[in-house]
Amino acid sequence: MSSPQLPPSVHVFVRDWLSANHVLLRSRDGHVLVDTGYSRHVPLTMALVEGRRGLAGEPLAKIVNTHGHSDHVGGNAALAARYGCPIAVPAAEAPLFRAWDEKALLYGYADQRVDRFEVGETIEAGSTQVWGDLEWRALAAPGHDMGALVFFNPEHRILVSGDALWQRGFGFLMPRALDPRAMPGARATLDLIASLDARCVIPGHGEPFGEVGAALEFAYTRLASLEADDERVARYAAKAIFAFALLDRRRFPEAAVPDYVGSVGLYRDMNDAVLRLSPAGLAALVVDELLRSGAIRREDGDLVPTSPEAG
Questions:
Q1: Which of 48, 129, 156, 162 is at 20 to 30 A from 234, Cα to Cα?
Q2: Is 250 left (phi over 0), alpha (psi -120 to 50) or beta?
Q3: Closest CA to 1 of 205, 200, 204, 293
Q4: Domains in the chain, start-ordered, CATH in brackets?
């Protein structure tokens, strides 16, 4: 299945599941980069963005983030230092960045790392931005991240969706016990995306795709299953966060998992509020389900991801 055609000013760097995709919007008035990947991948992010298919020696005018999670903002500090350009974030999240609230932003709270950066500009939901010689409508996209934005270009019907919609689902949601706004927000976001009649979606993870109706149908079905079962929401979130940690670390001693999930705030709070397992029980749940899905494997007493990192 071929990728949908994009305007010449729009270039997508597809990354793996540790770093979000980057969208480079080229313009004579200044190039803009949407999302910058995870901190451990900064060297590769820099190489891609600066290479022949990227800036190719030209300056970067601005960094834009769809939302504040670590896999979308991890290259902000390095790129801003290199190019002296401002960083524009969703207005709803700007106070969290300025206070560097590592719980609300899911950094230290989820055992994820981000180099601190300064907010230069904010993007209001409902505003129109001109990047890459195209107009983009910034639209509120709560759910996976309550302050997130998506960007829609009506002319070419292109949606930069961040983690609000992937070809097979969307980013994990918080269980109702921790954030009762998350699932209603996710449903409102899917309804918004459905109303746009997008031709092409550039997701935060995975290849750009044109089968938007099928992706929405899958996402609505997944959301309905989560709305019916808060325990399923918590299990899915715990698995997603541990899989991310394993991609970051590359391997993890299986015997250390109970102590680890008992010490990291997000696992502990989800467990206390919803799952109510011992640390050993939570570790077994996460590991067994990831093994069963084929996402991880055992190797010499360690857990390792099954798929190699693409960068």
A1: 162
A2: left
A3: 200
A4: 10-227 (3.60.15.10), 230-305 (1.10.10)
pTM to 2 decimal places? 0.96
Measured torsion, CA atoms of residues 182, 185, 191, 193, in degrees rounded to the nearest 10? -90
Q: Binning pLDDT at 50, 70 and 90, where does residue 17 land?
A: confident
Please provide residue 84's backbone torsions phi and psi, each rounded to the nearest 5 degrees: 60, 35
By residue count, the chain amounts to 311
Distance CA 19, CA 40 (A): 9
Three-state DSSP state, 91? helix
- 3-state SS, residue 198: coil
Q: Residue 109 CA to chain centroid, in angstroms?
A: 16
DSSP-assigned states of every residue in 14-79: ---SSS--EEEE--TT-EEEE----GGGHHHHHHHHHSTTTTTT--EEEEE-SS--HHHHTTHHHH
